[in-house]
Amino acid sequence: MIHKISFFLILLFSLFKIVYSSPKSVMRNETSIVYTFSLDNDYYTRFVMYQNETTPRSDIAPNYFDCQIVNLERVCVFHFGDSLSRLWGAVYSRACVRTVSDPKEDCESTWITDYMFPEPLNVKFSGYPPTSGGDVTFNGTFLRLAGGPNTLSSSFQTPSTIFIITVHGNFSDPKFNCNNFTATFPPNSGNFKLYFDDTGKKAFPFRYASPTISSLIPDSTKKVVTINGDNYSTKNSLVQVSFDGVDQTNINITVNHTQIQVNNFNRVDPGPMSVSIIINSVPIDKKYIYCFPAVITSITSVSNHLGGIVTIKGSKLSSVSNSSFVPTITIGDKQCTLIKSTTTELECQLDPNESGGKNLPVDVNFGGCNSTSSGGDAVTFTYNIPTLSSGSYSNGMVTLIGTNLGTTNESFIQLYTNGINDSLTVDQFNISSDEKSATFKLPLLKCKSFNINFTRIDISANNKLSMSAPLSINVTNRPSVSNGSLNIELYYIDCPISPSQPPSINVGNSTSATQCSIPSLTTTSEYYQTTCSTPYGTGVNKQFKFKYNSEEDNGEFSYESPKVVSRSFSKGLFNITINGNNFGNSTSLIKVYFNGSDISSEIQSLNDNQFTFKRLNSYENGPINITVDGNSMESSFYLTLPPVIYSIINKENKTIGCGGLITISGKNLLTSDDKFKVKVLANNENTTVIVPDEKTLIVRANNKDSPLFVSTFIGDDLGPNTTLTYYNPKITVIPSVKNKKDGISIRVGGVSLSGIISANLGLVTENVSLACDLQCSLSPNETFYLSNPILSSNETDITNSTDCLSCHSINSIVVDETSGVLYLQLGSTSYHYDVKIEEIQSSLNPSSSNGGERKSSKLSGGAIAGITIGSVAAAGAIAVNHRQIQVNNFNIVDLGSIYTNITYCTDNFQPFCKSCFDSDLSSTLSGGTSGESPTTVNSYSGLENNINNYQQTPPILQQQPLLPNPINHFEQPAPVYAGDPFQLLHHNDSNKLNDEYLSSYDRLGQSVIMVEWVATIIIIF
Q1: CB neighbours of 890 closer than 8 A, spacing ≥ 6?
Q2: Which of 921, 903, 935, 936 has the alpha carbon at shortest distance from 1021?
Q3: Do residues 526 and 446 touch, judged by C-beta distance below 8 A?
Q4: Is 1011 in a helix, a strand, or coil?
Q5: What is the largest CA-CA distance in the chain?
Q6: More confident residue, 954 or 194
Q7: What Cα–Cα distance (Å) separates residue 549 from each residue in 178, 471, 474, 518, 519?
Q8: Quick one: which H or E segment has residue 918?
Q9: C-alpha radius of gyration, the chain, whole number
Q10: What's the CA gap between 32 and 77, in Å, rounded?
Q11: Which among 88, 66, 73 has a CA at the least distance from the CA of 25?
């Protein structure tokens, strides 16, 4: 109303004022105002800006128009001493006018709005005001040139629609920008005209803000759709709502300006719905699309190897009103092809995807509307989620039925059962190629019920399957034949155990049940066990029926195998008794094999713990095996029989008189059983075993009386006996008499030398009494025996075995004669022999070719009968082998007096050599010459040449050929030849002749004498 009155007053005033000519044009921009006048018309000189109706502004800077004649026109440019942002005034502001003919200004007659008023330029605003009212910021040029300044008008034509728009700010403030201000709009709606000046001449189209939608919430149960947003006004009559172009008639503004409720609306189809709202002719800026989503509640899985049909459950999964409106289904980044659908369930085909995946997003999209999931968490898809639907058990195997069970290599089973916290692994696990069934061997479980957890890679099945298995048993022992008990392990039983219900068994066809013990756990097993008595019986694979609670199971057991503990023999060793267990009591059911032969028919008596059978002479030591009713021993028993002595087998019941040998023939003669030791007595004295053998036993009689009564024993039982007589003595070797400074000596070889012995040497001048020592000699492998085919063919007759009779003068005597007669008395037999007497030599001259020559005999066999070195006895002569004699602990004292006497024997006289060496060398090599101190020899010259002279053959052995081209070798130290089967003994070894080295003599070639000075003399030949 105020604006209307002001405009009326201005109009009235103009009727009584001077009227000047108007400008031809006006041009304006952000920085200037330019008026154009005709040359003969009036023109503006300046503006007078009023603060209100009566008061000009005093705070405004000076301004003026600079007018110039341009192209026959007057162009007046406005100049202002301040920024145009400070150029403001009320509608009462004036323009000063000057006429062409009068330079005087008229500043009262012309209002600034009369002619070509500079309208607002480049108006911009921050936005439309909300229907609830609000501020809008405007900026431009010339916004307050003739208005307000603190109000804007919304209308000049319709008074009922006029509302006041308040402009904020102090226009009098020099810093205030009149072209940039904020205005507050009151609550309202719709379109209207906005005026920046008070003239009403120029309207600026404006409106309230368009309605907006922030959310749409359908409630199908209430058939209500709630629309949240803004700029909805407050009057229901001003609101228009349409869904998919269909106007809704039941509309209420439930919250002023921000919420609309549409009633009686329900939509069952999924997909997009367009929403349109018009508030007082102001529509929504753009259509709002609301999606009614398909809702997913669950989804099945498929194998990434095979692909398959995926089933999705939920709501709004199909369009009811439009069957051709089908969804696009996406799982992860893969399409799933629709097969069929209803509003609550759909199926789609998913192709194989080798990369697989888990927790993949799922979208059932209708017309661009993505699906949602029920509940708080999104329903996602994971490949290879196994699902178990059922399971069965048969013959120890479990079969599972399901889907997506995978492959045998990537899946596994875990079992959980009562009393076991940890899972149990399974064996024989296998999955079908279609991944729909799996089998595995059920492990033994203590309790009947168990749970199955199926895992594929790291994905467990959504469900765990519970199953149970029938009762199963296992026999863990073999009962004895009599008074036996059966231990049975129980599997898959009802847990916990009921102590009032013991199990029972029926063996075979028996109708009588035997009660067993209450099942219990033991420290040796993780399963329940029970013990049941078994009836007397034998054999294997005995069937029985086991009953426990309401379940039964069949089993079998075998009785313990027969076992032998010991054996014994009857008096006289005629019967053998085998002691042990589980033999039974039926001779028809027992089979006894001795050394592979069936001797069951020889059984004389039988019970469960022993049986007796007759011993036959043909039996040999060996294994005994027993089978009772088809039940065999686990391991055989080695039966050792007592010895059997066949006879004493000396040829012609003879033996040699010197250490007589007795040969026993039999078997098992070397038994280790003390009760059956073989013992041989000669003249009731013990004998010495020379050759131990299972079949031939050779002993030496320690008694030299003749005859020998020989008796044999097996334990305390007397065996064969006989009387042996001696062979008559026989002299076989008569060598030369050795003539030494301390007396004479001779060594005589022979056979069966025994009895009381006396000897003397008859000389021309006297008879020299001799003292004799008898040494009996026999190689360990030689024996006397009768011709007996039982004996092996490699045994030899040594009737010519040689003894050694070593005789020497009782007193020291020097004999100058070269021959004599040796008289011997052996028991009742007398002998005399012509013998040569060796000449005495005092020294061995190294420089003489013949000096110190001593005669010696060498036989073809190469055995040495004796050694003498100088005048000193060489103690400790040892036969190292058949090429060497080693003399230990001997020091050379006088090289010039050294001589060596070597006697050789033929092969037939080797025992003679053996027996004579020790006594001869021990008496001859006793140390150095009496009274002389041992010294170390630094020169060996002449010794080798001296030794060369001792290559003679004794007269008694003329039939033996000499060794051709003897090689005499002298070295220090003595060598050990590679490949020699006998090692050279060192000088600290025993002084005894080692029988081992003389057991096999060989015929050797060249003759060599080797001397290791000071410590050892070795003679090699």
Answers
A1: 869, 872, 874, 875, 876, 925, 1015, 1016, 1017
A2: 903
A3: yes
A4: strand
A5: 218
A6: 194
A7: 106, 10, 17, 12, 12
A8: helix 910-924
A9: 72
A10: 7
A11: 73
State the residue for tokens 């696990």: 429
Are the C-beta atoms of residues 140 and 85 closer than 8 Å to each other? no
CA distance 202 to 195: 7
Which of 813, 822, 817 minimizes the C-alpha distance to 749?
822
Rounded Cα gap, residues 661 and 642, in angstroms = 24
Tokens at residue 827, please? 């028991």
3-state helix, strand, coil in the chain (%, to 5): 5, 45, 50
* Count of residues making up the chain: 1021
Q: Would you tell me how many other CB atoms lie within 10 Å of the CB of residue 408?
A: 13
DSSP conformational letter for 642: P
For the beta carbon of residue 381, count every other beta carbon within 10 angstroms: 24
Distance CA 35, CA 95 (A): 12
Distance of CA 218 to the CA centre of its chain: 63
C-alpha closest to that of 432 among 310, 305, 347 = 305
This prediction's pTM: 0.49
Do the Cβ atoms of 116 and 23 come closer than 8 Å? yes
Sign of the dihedral defined by the CA atoms of residues 940, 941, 942, 945, in that order = positive
Phi then psi dihedrals of residue 573, to 5 deg: 60, 30
Q: What is the DSSP letter of 242?
A: E
CB 208 within 8 A of CB 188: yes
Say if residues 584 and 629 touch (Cβ distance below 8 Å).
yes
Which range is least confidently modeled, 338-342, 842-846, 869-873?
Answer: 869-873
Of 116, 113, 138, nearest to 126 (Cα)?
Answer: 138
Sign, CA dihedral 331-333-338-342, equals: positive
At residue 924, the pLDDT reads 35
729, pLDDT greater than 90: no
pLDDT at 782 exceeding the cut of 90: no
The β-bridge partners of 388 are: 402
- Cα gap 516→509, rounded to integer Å: 18
The answer to whether the beta carbons of residues 258 and 249 sit under 8 Å apart is no
Amino acid 197: pLDDT: 87
The tokens describing 208, both together, are 């309230």
Question: What does the pLDDT read at residue 801?
Answer: 53
Strand ranges in 280-410 using DSSP code E only, listed in sequence order: 282-283, 288-292, 295-299, 308-315, 328-331, 334-341, 345-350, 360-365, 372-373, 380-381, 387-394, 397-403
The residue written with tokens 């509309």 in the block is: 251
Contact 723, 652 (CB under 8 A): no
Q: What is the mean pLDDT of the chain?
A: 79
Distance CA 773, CA 537 (A): 76
Q: DSSP class of residue 955?
A: G
Query: CB neighbours of 404 closer than 8 A, spacing ≥ 6?
Result: 301, 302, 303, 308, 383, 384, 385, 386, 387, 435, 456
Query: According to the 3-state scheme, what is the secondary structure of 388-411?
Result: EEEEEEECCEEEEEEECCCCCCCE
Dihedral, CA of residue 785, residue 790, residue 794 and residue 800, to nearest 10: 10
Q: Which of 464, 470, 654, 671 is nearest to 552 (CA)?
A: 470
Does 86 have pLDDT greater than 50? Answer: yes
Extract the tokens encoding 295. 């809702």
Three-state DSSP at 792 gives coil
First to last CA, the chain: 167
Question: How high is the pLDDT of residue 158?
Answer: 64
**How many angstroms separate the CA atoms of 886 and 1019, rounded?**
6
pLDDT, tens digit, 9 for 90 and up, residues 973-1021? 333 333 333 333 333 333 333 333 333 323 223 223 233 333 333 333 3
- Per the model's pLDDT, the better-predicted residue between 310 and 880 turns out to be 310
From the list 647, 619, 640, 464, the residue with the least C-alpha distance to 567 is 640
Residue 537: alpha-carbon gap to chain centroid? 47
